[in-house]
Design brief:
The protein is an alpha+beta fold. The chain folds into two domains: 123 residues, Aminotransferase class 4, branched-chain amino acid transferase, N-terminal domain (D-amino Acid Aminotransferase, Chain A, domain 1, 2-Layer Sandwich); 156 residues, D-amino Acid Aminotransferase, Chain A, domain 2 (Alpha-Beta Barrel), CATH 3.20.10.10. The chain is 29% helix and 23% strand. It is built from ten helices and 15 strands. The strands form two sheets. Strands 7, 8, 9, 10, 11, 12, 13 and 14 form an eight-stranded mixed beta sheet that branches. A hairpin with a 2-residue loop joins β13 and β14.
């Protein structure tokens, strides 16, 4: 059998792999990439708008070990929403895995603003990444040359405008285990668990999936937080212990205090809840930077409430849209 396989390999030799010159290499690489507008790298301490130069070194531990942290947010109509919350979490994640952010928070803001300005796009997505550094293909972090910061501005996939409507979605229980310990609260570049959950969404034919921890508590989605309205009108989202503390979920909890004042709900806050509680919830919500608020109308093939968008979800969606008006101090003006 081995002899036959060897003969088969010999008779079906791969064509000789071409060695490309720089221009041909760049052209080939560019044809297979998404739309990028601008990029900052602390390796050069400068910004480029040339997509062919928007690269991360292959020996950067961010690439071959997933050793780094990141944040993603949007610039919409010339302003970035909730930037301080994202940068606070970025610094927290960095500290938890022993990375030193090479800039102050104000310097980070200025780098982000200038890189976004260089993109010449008032509507864009922005990603900030901090890596352990380059210099080795091994795993030892102490062999790296030092932390590297990257800021990438790229095409936006969704904009929630004032005339946008609340979206509805289906949800299923994920079979992927939740992340362990404090790693669940770190927005690291190792997103394998999250990728597997995105695969589940297609496999289960649903819009989102949600994890459940070993104690039976609801966790999070692939890139989203979950909230429910109980039948005694309490809006709760899981404690940020085994889930990533979402910036949008945090803002939702703050804005929902207006609904408490208006006697629409009785309470808003963090509290763990089980799958059974979620199956019996009056409303189920998805919270995320991209989605804002989404009303879940089906969970594990069972209708949520009457199968229509919930009243609380609609109120929260409206509050979140109003939170993004130009005069709000939570916005960082870029253009």
């Amino acid at each position: 059998m081995v002899f036959l396989l060897m003969n088969l390999f010999r008779n079906n030799k791969m064509n000789k792999i071409p060695i490309l010159n720089n221009d041909d290499w760049d052209e080939t690489m560019l044809s297979k990439r998404c739309e990028l507008y601008s990029m900052y790298s602390s390796l050069t301490s400068s910004i480029t708008t040339d997509m062919s130069k928007m690269m991360i070194p292959i020996d950067d531990h961010l690439v071959h070990r997933g050793d780094g942290v990141f944040e993603s947010f949007k610039c919409v109509e010339g302003s970035i929403y909730n930037l301080d919350a994202h940068l606070d979490r970025f610094v927290y994640s960095s500290q938890k895995i022993g990375l030193k952010v090479p800039y102050s928070k104000e310097e980070l803001k200025e780098i982000i603003i200038q890189t976004t300005l260089a993109s010449e796009h008032e509507n864009s997505s922005v990603r900030v990444l901090l890596s352990r550094g380059a210099g080795t293909m091994g795993i030892d972090p102490f062999e790296c040359t030092g932390e590297i910061l990257y800021v990438v501005v790229y095409s936006i996939n969704k904009i929630i405008k004032m005339d946008s409507n609340l979206e509805v979605a289906s949800l299923a229980t994920s079979l992927i285990p939740v992340k362990a310990g404090y790693l669940a609260k770190v927005k690291s570049c190792n997103y394998l668990t999250n990728v597997l959950m995105k695969i589940e969404e297609k496999t289960f034919d649903v819009d989102y999936v949600v994890s459940v921890d070993e104690d039976g508590n609801i966790g999070e989605g692939a890139t989203e937080n979950i909230g429910i309205v109980t039948y005694d009108n309490r809006l709760i989202t899981p404690l940020p212990e085994r889930v990533l503390p979402g910036t949008t979920a945090k803002r939702i909890i703050e804005l929902a205090k207006y609904l408490v004042e208006d006697d629409i709900i009785k309470y808003t806050g963090y509290e763990n809840f089980s799958k059974e509680q979620m199956l019996n919830a009056k409303e189920i919500h998805i919270y995320g930077t991209t989605q804002g608020v989404v009303s879940v109308i089906e969970y594990d093939k069972k209708l949520v409430g009457n199968g229509k968008p919930g009243k609380v979800a609609q109120k929260l969606f409206q509050l979140l849209k109003e939170d993004k008006v130009p005069e709000n101090t939570i916005l960082t003006k870029v253009f």
